[in-house]
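Lab notebook page, bench 4
Experiment: in silico fold of construct C2
Operator: M.H.
Input chain length: 259 residues
Purpose: comparison with the prior construct
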Amino acid sequence: MKNTTLFLFIFIQLIAKSQNARLLNVNEKIVLKNQNSFHFTHKYFINNCYNGIESNKIIYQNIDILYNGIDYGLSNYLSVGANVLTYIPSSFFNLHLNSQIDLNDYLKIGASYNIFFIAGNLNKENITSKKFELLSGGITIGNLNNNLTFSVAKGYIQKLGKIGSIDENFNNLAFSLSGMVEIDKNFLFITDNFFMHEIDEKFFSLGFRKIDGNFSYDFALMGNTYKKENDAINLTNGMKTYKDDFRVYPYLSISYLIK
């Protein structure tokens, strides 16, 4: 996975440099046309949008108080970031690297590498920590404020200790389909969705983003499918039975353009 990740980012950077001169004037025109929106369209609620972060820009994000993250544009084609979720009994720390290029004014491709360090759940016997790596790539069709993105990701998880176990389901492929539409000036409708191959666990979201100067505010509802334990027991083998269920929860986020 590490060799594949390195190859992808080197490949994207080489193409990006060759197109830098051609795209410079295009990017300058886009920024002048919609200065505020340009800084807050690099991601949906969770998944990437391959518009990217402008060079030397720093964006801080807080989600539901417990989650804090920061992203920095190394160039118009490459950015780095870090996130931390402080939640008892389980927390995580994340580092990520994102890269993208513009094939033309309405077509972008990109790749992302994430590594998570996940603390063990102290309420259960499984108290081991885990490392989770995620490599993804995809395509964005559209402009800054009206676009659709499709991505494919592959995960790899391992435990960092001798106690407990890991969920091999995280090693499956995951697919995401997300989009945003400009309803009014600096007001966007966003949907952000993905599901995991084989276990077919689905995540959905619908909401809005309001951009106000150096701030942006997200208001959304998220939901995911999961297996819920039935009260009944399989009379044939005496095993517990499960059924598909769905839960919904609010998503609130604030982002700030530091510079």
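Observations: The chain is about 15% helix and 55% strand. The first strand starts at residue 58 and ends at 63.
Next step: discuss at group meeting.
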